[in-house]
Design goal:
One of its GO terms (molecular function) is (S)-2-hydroxyglutarate dehydrogenase activity. Keywords: FAD, Flavoprotein, Oxidoreductase. Its cofactor is FAD. Belongs to the L2HGDH family. By secondary structure, the chain is an alpha+beta fold. The chain has 3 domains: 163 residues, FAD/NAD(P)-binding domain, CATH 3.50.50; 96 residues, no CATH class; 147 residues, D-Amino Acid Oxidase, Chain A, domain 2 (2-Layer Sandwich). The protein has 13 helices and 18 strands. The strands form 4 sheets. Strands 9-2-1-12-11-10 form a 6-stranded mixed β-sheet. Strands 13, 15, 16, 17 and 18 form a 5-stranded antiparallel β-sheet that branches. Strands 6-7-5-14 form a 4-stranded mixed β-sheet, sandwiched between helices. The longest helix has 20 residues. Bound molecules: flavin-adenine dinucleotide (FAD). The site of flavin-adenine dinucleotide (FAD) has 41 residues, from helix 2, strand 18 and helix 13.
Length: 427
């Protein structure tokens, strides 16, 4: 868990002025009510914690849960800027429990994804959280995609993904009667779940174990205490780190773990760390299949991935509520956590232009970017792509609307799209 957290947030370290460690903190699920500042927990005074976790998404909450279960004597607090937990990436993703097929064998990503998926299934069973192991087909529709598909199959086997099969046209039809393709990888281990529900359950476990969740707490500053508010018997300051929010309220702690999602670079900088890799926000648009046409899709249907962006590429995703999402495509967004096409934030735009190396990104991936913009502007282009898999899909008849927009988190420098972040979170 903690290694996963370090990898995903990339921001565990010393606070400005040099505090000894690096971490961040979560709250109660079901109703999503804010938790008063002094609730839950043990040993801690109202605003002091051994460990604070910044960010109440699935990564922060999974980290908080794991820490408190392994170290039950620690007082741990999660700080979340929104009124409710898990409302950003965790509440806006495709909801797929990925099997771990795409990643390089032996890599941390591959291990986290394969083991994370198994743990998510086990956890959902234990907690009675609904999920569907509906499987996934990665389908080659052109002859030239077949070598890449076969290589991907080998990779999946090396990663230890359960139940993988390479299947031909007739078996594709048995699995997905409306899908056409030349060859496919059948991955029965892939599933779907509502990750927000999983995250809220993590928060509940955390609070039941004595952890605190403070919502409406937007971290604005992290610094070392100048005075000595509390000392332990050996004379050392017990809670040397002060974390302030936008309202001027403070919490003190010994360690901070940062899991701030689309703000992870800014929070990393606040804690005295390197802000790299910088976040460049991309919006992903999905189409929604008309309810009466949902019979066209049984499980997840994905294209053979572009090796540069293995998780991009418009796909068919069944949802826990029975709907089918088609997408997403990826378009540069002008606001982090901005879900509408015209959401705009001047600081976010300046950061994209000045700090993020966007120009390099654009030059390196010019044709891909233009294609994505084109698909976003002309829905018929997206639908044409979808028709390669299911020819029955048509714009007027099958799709209802462009659904709420989601935000992609492109991590500049590494192109490490964390589009399996929820699956990995448990591990
Ligand atoms: C379009 C899309 C589809 C995806 N599909 C899948 C999928 O199918 N399967 C999968 O496994 N993964 C998927 N992912 C990836 C997955 O959703 C993310 O990796 C995961 O949700 C990240 O969780 P997080 O906790 O790091 O971030 P978030 O859920 O964004 O949480 C970060 C939290 O930090 C809080 N925060 C930020 N700044 C501050 C501050 N200053 N003070 C206090 N709190 C702060 C935010 O409010 C937020 O609640 C997808 C992602 C996207 C964008």
């Amino acid at each position: 868990m903690v290694p996963a957290l370090r990898y995903l947030s990339g921001a565990c370290s010393r606070a400005r002025g040099g505090f000894p460690g690096g971490f961040s903190a979560a709250r109660r699920p079901a109703q999503g009510r804010p938790w008063p500042l002094c609730q839950g927990g043990r040993r801690a005074s109202t605003r002091s914690f051994d460990v604070v976790i910044i960010g109440g998404g699935i990564v922060g909450l999974a980290s908080a849960r794991a820490l408190i279960l392994r170290h039950p004597t620690l007082s741990i607090g999660v700080l979340e800027k929104e009124k409710h937990l898990a409302v950003h990436q965790t509440g806006h993703n495709s909801g797929v429990i990925h099997s771990g097929i795409y990643y390089k064998p032996e890599s941390l990503k591959a291990k986290l994804c394969v083991q994370g998926a198994a743990l998510i299934y086990e956890y959902c069973k234990q907690k009675g959280i609904s999920y569907k192991q509906c499987g996934k087909l990665i389908v080659a529709v052109e002859q030239e995609e077949i070598p890449r598909l076969q290589a991907l199959y080998e990779r999946g086997l090396q990663n230890g993904v359960q139940g993988l099969r390479l299947i031909q046209q007739e078996d594709i039809k048995k699995k997905e009667p409306y899908c056409r393709g030349l060859m496919a990888i059948d991955c029965p281990y892939t599933g779907i779940v509502d990750y927000r529900q999983v995250a809220l359950s993590f928060a509940q476990d955390f609070q039941e174990a004595g952890g605190f969740v403070l919502t409406n707490f937007e971290v604005k500053d992290i610094e070392m205490a100048k005075e000595i508010p509390s000392r332990s018997k050996d004379g050392k300051m017990k809670y040397p780190i002060i974390i302030r929010n936008t309202k001027g309220e403070e919490v003190q702690c010994q360690y901070v773990v940062t899991c701030a999602g689309l703000y992870s670079d800014r929070i990393s900088e606040l804690s005295g760390c390197n802000p790299d890799p910088q976040i460049v926000p991309f919006r992903g648009d999905y189409l929604l299949l008309k309810p009466e046409k949902c019979y066209l899709v049984k499980g997840n249907i994905y294209p053979v991935p572009d090796s540069r962006f293995p998780f991009l590429g418009v796909h068919f995703t069944p949802r826990m509520d029975g709907s089918i999402w088609l997408g997403p495509n990826a378009v540069l967004a002008f606001k982090r956590e901005g879900y509408k096409p015209f959401d705009f934030n001047a600081r976010d735009v300046m950061d994209i232009i000045i700090k993020s190396g966007l120009i390099k990104l654009v030059f390196q991936n010019f044709s891909y970017g233009v294609n994505e913009m084109y698909k976003a502007c002309f829905l018929s282009a997206t639908v044409k792509h979808l028709q390669k898999f299911i020819p029955e899909i048509t714009l007027q008849q099958q799709t209802m609307k462009v659904s709420d927009n989601d935000i992609y988190c492109f991590l500049w420098h590494c192109f490490g799209l964390l589009l399996t972040g929820s699956t990995c979170s448990f591990k």
